[in-house]
Amino acid sequence: MVALSPDVLVRFLSADGSLSVRAVSGRALVAEAAARHECRTLGTVALGRTLLGALLLGAAGKDEETVQIRFRGNGPLGHVVALADCDARVRGYVTHPEAQLPARHGRLDVASGIGFGEVTVVRHRPGWREPYTGIVPITAGEVAEDLALYLAESEQTPSALALGVAVDEDGEVVHAVGFLAQALPGASEDAVAKLEANVRMVGAPTDWLAAGGDVAGLCDALLQDLGGRELRRDPAVYHCGCSIERVTRAVALLGREDLDAAAAEGEALEVRCEFCAERYEVSPEQALALLVSD
Predict the structure, then answer these.
(1) Does residue 1 register a pLDDT over 50?
(2) Backbone phi, then psi, for 8, in 5-degree steps?
(3) CATH number of this structure's domain 244-293
(4) Under 8 Å CB-to-CB from 99, ≥6 apart: which residues?
(5) Domain limits of the chain?
(6) To the nearest whole percent, how much of the chain has pLDDT over 70?
(7) Helix, strand, coil: what percent of the chain each, to 5?
(8) What is the pTM of this model?
(9) Which CATH architecture has domain 8-238?
């Protein structure tokens, strides 16, 4: 049995500094997301690809920058959302995780599951006056192609992006991996052509892991004959910052009138975090106490 790679995000740079390559493996975090949201296979793959894509795009950030990806399609999955930071932490959800479609040409029909619409990418960094937002149409619905279109059109960065989530016949996540290769300003035509050839040679990233490779070796292969050095390595994790304190503050926004009514009925308010599916019970008295203290 092939050993599974740990969840990790690596960043590489070519020897001359003109090419950037990142790769991520995230089997455990995709499996956790699928379990938390009770996804069927279609939702697992669509959400998993989006989580991996957010990690790769978020890796370009710094100073607590975050990136949010939202697919707003007309398919049965509804919205597919992922939010990642520059430290390889990610969370997300799919509106209808129970949705399922027949296979198409022997493969999960993720494109029909997402449907047509638009994909929005929002980058935000503390200290910015307002976030940067880019919107492009969903033309493929396979996630990677649509994010590559966003990078080319909204960030003017032609990119090779591949995202793969492999599941077994029971719907369990076997591999989850992706890579992002980009030419930086000043890259020569020869370097870009070689990178493109290497991308074609590498093929599907899930096949790379299935053959026993890891993401560092994947980056080395993408930079073959171009030289490469690892810049940074981070554990990739499914992480949500929700807490009972944050939830209580959100409940307090209902206002005194609604909270007084709930207190009179003697019922606790149940709140479910959209991103991690964690459930919290907040008593109206707890929320009212915040209003008094504020």
Answers:
(1) no
(2) -155, 150
(3) 3.90.1280.10
(4) 40, 42, 43, 75, 76, 77, 78, 113
(5) 8-238, 244-293
(6) 97
(7) 35, 30, 35
(8) 0.92
(9) 3-Layer(bab) Sandwich (3.55)
